[in-house]
Amino acid sequence: MRILWMKLPLLALGLFLAPLQAVEFRAGAATSNITPELGSSINGGFQDGTAAYIHDELHARCLALDDGKTRLVMVVADSCVIGRGIFDEAKMLVHRATGLPEANMMMSATHSHSCGTLQAVGQSEPSPVYQKFVARRIADGVRRALNNLAPARIGHGSAQVPHQVFNRRWRMKPGSIPPTPLGVTTDQVKTNPGVRNPGLLEPAGPTDPEVGFISVQHLDGRPLALLANYSLHYVGGVGPGHISADYFGAFAGKMARLLGAEQQEPPFVGIMSNGTSGDINNIDFRGSQAKEGPYGRIQIVADEVAQAVADAVKSVKHQDWVPLTVAQKEVTLGLRLPGKGEVEKARAVMKQSKLFPRMETMEQVYARETVLLADFPPTVSAPLQVMKIGDLHVSAIPAEVFVEIGLELKKRHAPTFTVSLANAYHGYLPTPEHHRLGGYETWRARSSCLEVDASTKILAGLEELFQQLPQRAE
User: Fold this and answer.
1) Are the CB atoms for 407 and 431 separated by under 8 Å?
2) Are 462 and 384 in contact (CB under 8 A)?
3) pLDDT in tens, 365-380
4) What is the pTM assigned to this prediction?
């Protein structure tokens, strides 16, 4: 509890100070089920998937914080990607019901590739009914978290888990990189080149082993919620047609057990957000990992990350009050769009599919992407956001952000972490240097069409937001 003071008139005994009011720090958390129905679309691949089995339920996991003056909400939803329309609708519903400013909400997707489709990507198309359902369920989760607001303590920390993150972009021996589906022959790196590929030279970039986290407790020390951030794309290895929250969901459950918070009212909420993992996955292409059955790797990663965080929480100093602030802005980004000749050629390639309108080959898939991009506007408006929680900065970028960008932000503004796929979705965000190297994440498609200098503009926009926030926690 923080005491605010006011000056009283000078009395005979001297100048006295008296409390004006007590300000409590409060927090609340909740989950909201967003599992799709069987038979619905699963995205995350070049071909559409169909939900045939629910391995584990999908959720929107919500954390609300209140310093007595400002309220902030952070939501992480189990989905591969979520477009801005769904997030904006959820925020509008919360604002109408509670008055919470939409700018005070940060919403993101986990990027699990075994979830229901919420945005058209690859050859998967979303159901408008499911989109509406998820927007409403996210809003309900936020309102429930706000309803659960109670006096709380908060702290933050980090753990190191270096053995579960690998850069998936590799420099290769000359002659070992084939032409791209768009016919480009100048790529200098290959994404996911295959385990023990004889053409391997070295990874084309670094990794970020840090797991940043926010820990929230009830005043009596019981865990209330924990929100973590790890720069790992996803793990995968689920069964065919399975709906699963991947390691993000497994981490949440394991944190409750490790912290002894399984039987609480209201329930403890564990949350894992996706960091800057656009070029990071869980495959050691040098071949050190043993093969696992379905969900084997997911459990290994979730176990190690959760245990590292649980150990680190023990040394975190929880405070009974910290200030909360937020800054947000829009940046305009150009798109890499095809020319008329490219579109005409792409239409001819599409017609070669024997299963038209479904595309069979990678060349046909990217031809379809070219045709679809022809109808895109030349620019998009991308929302950027930075929340400050005490002395911790949490930034939000609406893309699959390359790890170098997150590392640069940590270098400039420690302590900080970045949530990817947040508040909208604009595809991959390579650096200009990685655009020059080429590789899958740069191949033009709806999931990779931002201008080459997009990351530079986003970093500049975030820098403006960092400067707007108080430089020190009050």
Assistant:
1) no
2) yes
3) 999 999 999 999 999 9
4) 0.94
